[in-house]
UniProtKB/TrEMBL annotation:
Name of encoding gene: leuB
Domain Isopropylmalate dehydrogenase-like: 4-354
Positions bearing the site annotation: Important for catalysis: Y142, K193
Catalysed reactions listed for this entry: (2R,3S)-3-isopropylmalate + NAD(+) = 4-methyl-2-oxopentanoate + CO2 + NADH
Domain of life: Bacteria
Residues involved in Mg(2+) binding: D225, D249, D253
Protein name per the record: 3-isopropylmalate dehydrogenase
Swiss-Prot/TrEMBL GO biological process terms: L-leucine biosynthetic process
Task performed by this protein: Catalyzes the oxidation of 3-carboxy-2-hydroxy-4-methylpentanoate (3-isopropylmalate) to 3-carboxy-4-methyl-2-oxopentanoate. The product decarboxylates to 4-methyl-2 oxopentanoate.
GO CC annotation: cytosol
UniProt pathway annotation: Amino-acid biosynthesis; L-leucine biosynthesis; L-leucine from 3-methyl-2-oxobutanoate: step 3/4
Length: 359
């Protein structure tokens, strides 16, 4: 049966990295006879420029109909000055996540042994690193209401957001985290700020409650400030980490650097039935866009996650991950992961090397 993939390149380096991931997908599609059909759509600034909105109805309906979505990145200085915040490129991405109820965001931080030198930490601290950050993606302070900027009686303006989670939102992400831990080393660290914020007092309570259904999983709790410190002090103490939307955003960027570069971190954003959107954790990197030097591996690895989680094509996913490892063995490096003695390659050369390794 044919499977329909919606490809949303987005802005900045998005189109450059997605082009390479699509080459890789087309290669496994033929090699493993997957029956994938790929179709393109517009999101973010690219959609705003054509349709005046970062998430056109046409994109949303294609996304609903697709079996899985591959997204590059959105945003950039061109659209930062837009007065109506609803029209910002990032709103397109947030609209896809909430509209499709993609509440479970998996961000695996794995250090390829070939990249030990590219990590910002000492090799002995990071070698063998394999952690999974489970980030809640459709709630918390990102979506809480009320929100806005208001004028106070004294004429001063005040910005405000609301950090809110209800029990069912916490319970469903807790289940994703415990289920993930069951498939790994059965250690789950829940990250909160329960010493200050009531919303995370409730978060902790629900984690403990759901944990009773998973007696084999060792559950611990950590405040987010300590978690940030522990991630750069001794990251291998973690197996699975689960946290809310904003803490997860921040901690996953920090974890990315342990793997050598933010250009190495893929992600899956899943709904309750494992339908998903797949995207690198990084952004549109305006500082290097258009230069052909961005690292496409996070996007290529996101395509592998898509095959694994939404399409159940495990052999094809394994093959992509093995091909990435092979090009790293060959010493090929984009600038962000380059170290002395390695061969510096472009986005396109990296993508084509992965394709060659698959053949
Ligand atoms: P960023 O992740 O785009 O870039 C941060 C730094 O990492 C930059 O120096 C960039 O060059 C580098 N980098 C990122 N991806 C890379 C890659 N694949 N290869 C090599 N280097 C890479 O974050 P930012 O600069 O804070 O944000 C830029 C824009 O992207 C903003 O508009 C932001 O809102 C948006 N953004 C989008 C997403 C997304 O679409 N999922 C994620 C984060 C940021
Ligand atoms: C990410 C990004 C997004 C987020 C932005 C672009 C809305 O930083 O996917 O990590 O904050 O979730
Ligand atoms: Mn982010």
């Amino acid at each position: 049966m044919s499977k329909n993939i919606l490809v949303l390149p987005g802005d900045g380096i998005g189109p450059e990295i997605v082009t390479e991931a699509v080459k890789v997908l087309n290669t496994v599609n033929e090699k493993f006879n997957l029956g994938l059909t790929l179709e393109n759509g517009l999101v973010g600034g690219a959609a705003y420029d054509v349709h005046g909105t970062p998430l056109p109805e046409e994109t949303m309906s294609k996304a609903r109909a697709a079996d899985a979505i591959l997204l590059g990145a959105v945003g950039g200085p061109k659209w930062d000055a837009l007065e109506d915040r609803e029209l910002r490129p990032e709103k397109g991405l947030l609209g896809l996540r909430s509209g499709l109820e993609l509440f479970g965001n998996l961000r695996p931080a794995i250090l390829y042994p070939q990249l030990a030198d590219a990590s910002s930490l000492k090799p002995e601290v990071v070698s063998g690193l394999d952690i999974l950050i489970v980030r809640e993606l459709t709630g918390g302070i990102y979506f809480g209401k009320p929100r806005g900027i208001r004028v106070l009686e004294n004429g001063e303006r005040e910005g405000y957001n609301t950090y809110v989670y209800n029990e069912s939102e916490i319970r469903r992400i807790a289940r994703v985290a415990f289920e993930s831990a069951m498939k790994r080393n059965k250690k789950l660290c829940s990250v909160d700020k329960a010493n200050v914020l009531e919303v995370t007092v409730l978060w902790r309570e629900i984690l403990i409650e759901v944990g009773k259904e998973y007696p084999e999983v060792e559950l611990s709790h950590m405040y987010v400030d300590n978690a940030a410190m522990q991630l750069v002090r001794a990251p291998k103490q973690f197996d699975v980490m689960v946290t809310g939307n904003m803490f997860g955003d921040i901690l996953s960027d920090a974890a990315a650097m342990l793997t050598g570069s933010i250009g190495m971190l893929p992600s899956a954003s899943l709904d309750k039935d494992n339908k998903g959107m797949y995207e690198p954790c990084h952004g549109s990197a305006p500082d290097i866009a258009g230069q052909g030097i961005a690292n496409p591996l996070a996007t290529i690895l996101s395509a592998a996650m898509m095959l694994r989680y939404s399409l159940n094509e495990v052999a094809a996913a394994d093959a992509i991950e093995a091909a990435v490892s092979k090009v790293l063995d060959q010493g090929l490096r984009t600038g962000d992961i380059w170290s002395a003695g390695m061969e510096k390659v472009s986005t396109e050369q990296m993508g084509e090397a992965v394709v060659a390794a698959l053949l």
